[in-house]
Amino acid sequence: MKRTLLATSIALAAVLAVAPAVISCSGDSYSKISFSAQDTSYAVTSQGGSAVAYGNNIYFINGYRGYSDTNGTANLWGDVVKGALYRATLNGARDEENKLLFRPQADSEAIEFKYKKGTDYFDNEINIVSSTKIAPKTIGTEGYENGGLFIYDNYVYFASPNNEKNKAGTVQTISTDFFMMPLSGGKPTKIYTTTEKVTTSSSAYAFYKYNGSVYLVVNEDKDIVSVKINPSKEKVDDPVFFKVKATSVYFPVKETYYKGIDTNTPEDFIYFVRAVTDDDKQNAGTVIEAMRPDGSENFKVSQSGQAETIEAVRDGLLFYRSAEVGNTKLRYTNMHNMLMEYSKSYKKAQDAITDADAKNKEVTGTFMTTISSDFTATYAFRSDLNSNEVFFVGVTSSGMTLYRSGEDDFIMYQLCSNSGTPKFIKNNYLYFAGSSSDYYRVPLFKHMDGFGEAQLLAENTSTATFGCDYAAGYFTYYGEVDQWASGYAYFVKVDGMEGAEPIFVGQRASSDIPSASEIEKVLNGDAN
Q1: What is the pTM of this model?
Q2: Buried (b) or exposed (e) across 94-104, using 16+ Cβ within 10 A?
Q3: How far are the Cα atoms of 120, 177, 266, 309 from residue 312, in angstroms, in the given order?
């Protein structure tokens, strides 16, 4: 069966797949996993990452084992430890003023993990954080750097490399499986497997909550695939293929979720770039378009006649680069005027606001500083959702400089002399990856302690696709536990007392547990 669907302003050909969504696969079988149920009345934070906080728990990817699976036996449900989804519980209590939040205990400056006293392999006393297995599959894909854990209500959603063999006997790790797992325990449901022969191991994907349903969206070649999920019935609709001829896509992640959250922000739309066609008003450059995860409320965001690429969607703004003659400019917009015209739900929400000062207003601008080849990286952001102050950090070989948007741009100051790759901003600190697999953070504003110097958070970390993250006041990365185990999740407390030591929270795979003879050799000073 094939059917053509139309999205609002342009006709998007959407072909409904013939086969229904698969609930199980021949290469795997799914046993029940038992654990205590998650309290779903809390807010979810750090959505889409490798570590996601949900009230009194942090859900995290236990380690990075890689994604090779030559024989189809490395990613079987129930067998995976390193690379699987685990959960660790936090000390604290519900915030009485904002019951969506989990706060520290009365005698503590920050939320901390629950732990018990124990000893290591050499009988040294250590604090052991208890962790719980949630989904024993390899989480994530080879090219998606954010980790890709999404939580909505009672389900966690994730991707995993496909482990079935094709007719030639080759394991199809270039294809991707998507799952949902109940946070009250039970079996996973397979949502969708990407199209065979289309390599999706590095494709963008995300999960969205919209109009009471959860949507998976994934980029397959030049198409965007959308799958509607009804979690309460564990019902998965047939996938819809939007033939948008995308040259690139951008699927934003709204880091916070709770029941009833506003879904009319730029982060609630998905974006793609395409070449111009005869139907466009310009005959050169590219076109940036936006639409809902179900394909509705589609509109053109920018069509300037220049070659444009999406930089980011964050802080209620779309940032994009425009390659003008002789230079490249960084632009931004909150799309307010376009949303008022093309999004019925956005307009309805704005019309319902009686206080004129509380209504959204158009925020659009261009950084006058040319984005030249001297910049090895840029990171654009807004100080808060109610501010018109927009900034970007420009990284060169000489360090990082903060720019504020305005006439001719205002170069505020150099943040530090380090070069690197910005990852995210939390509590006015810019976190970035330096050289030699090191991670740092640097204050953004002069009134902050330690301004002008980068603080080293972790060094000589393990190379992992998803790198680093932040959840519940912890900076997370992947590193070496000891001489027998590396590539496991580590947590460093960055909110609270300074000088906190990294904490190994997860569990070792059996292959990373030393034997008695190996321990004895170390105790005897034999390193060989």
Answers
A1: 0.93
A2: beeeeebebeb
A3: 44, 26, 11, 9
